[in-house]
Amino acid sequence: MEQFEVTGNCKYCGVGKMIQSLDLITDERADLNVTNSCGCVGAISNRQLENALGKIEELFGKECTKFGVTPATEEQYEILKNAAKSMAYDEILHVTYGFGNGVKAKICKNAKDEIEIIRTNTSVIKRTT
Ligand SMILES: [Zn+2]
Question: Where are the alpha helices (DSSP H) in the chain?
Answer without folding.
Answer: 27-37, 41-60, 74-88
